[in-house]
């Protein structure tokens, strides 16, 4: 069996990196196969370690002075002036933690090492909030997914918009694919997965809040401008998302022109025909043009498009014909 690297895609198919997904569970499963005597001792040690384990929320509850004092007891200078100077030109609190460990004459004990690692992250939040660390950005990504599970998409949109505003400044001109951006997007998700989730959230929120419609138009425009070498499917999805948002914003001519451009450039793909037909044939639209919508889908089938079944094109066409005939 091939060895799975910590930063490889998790084999479970979640889209997360292995270290942020199933790594711990796999390690626990291996431990469970140990001999009963060894397992018993391992379990006792693990329970005891968990009691004393430092976690980010535990460190976050400490006053800054207490964090600094605990660091001083370990031989580390955690005052603001020293920290800010050390952080200059860096993007990750882990690099500061590494310097701290390297400055000690003896390796820290496990509990002390955990505290130092978390203290570096927490002090960065307090001392340099205007320059988010990679760990802070990852925290926003995780917070967004937690809110998403709680069906709070409006809050997700705001958290991830803050994340995007910082990340996009780090993306270099040569990073023209999602995978190329992974080098600056050092979080638990791959960039391509996250940006598509973000755009989906913005699209959903734009249905009832026009603020997110304008945000989505700007966001997708920036993504299309940057990631020009991304896969055809990804680019077409972005252009369709943008066309829908333009129509939702009342810029129907621009939105319809976007869909028509997709048809002209990629007549073998169903998406342009479908999106334009949907826009033209919306029942609640006073100037709905169902005959033209039908003609578009007939044109797609006649070309023929390569993905008609994926889009249920024939079903959509039959539905429009029934609507035109006044059938229920």
Describe the structure.
There is one protein chain. By secondary structure, this protein is mainly alpha-helical. 66% of the residues lie in helices and 0% in strands. The protein has 17 helices and no strands. Helix 8 runs antiparallel to helix 9 and helix 16 packs antiparallel against helix 17. The N and C termini lie far apart (57 Å). About 5% of the residues have low confidence.
Order of helices and strands: HHHHHHHHHHHHHHHHH
Radius of gyration: 26 Å
The average pLDDT value, as a whole number, equals: 88
Number of strands: 0
Number of helices: 17
Concise account of the structure shown:
The protein is an all-alpha fold and 328 residues long. 66% of the residues lie in helices and 0% in strands.
SSE layout and pairing:
Blueprint: H1 23-32, H2 36-52, H3 56-60, H4 64-73, H5 80-87, H6 93-103, H7 110-127, H8 134-149, H9 153-167, H10 178-181, H11 191-206, H12 210-226, H13 232-248, H14 252-265, H15 270-280, H16 290-302, H17 313-325
Helix pairs in contact: 6-7, 8-9, 9-11, 11-12, 12-13, 13-14, 13-15, 14-15, 15-16, 16-17
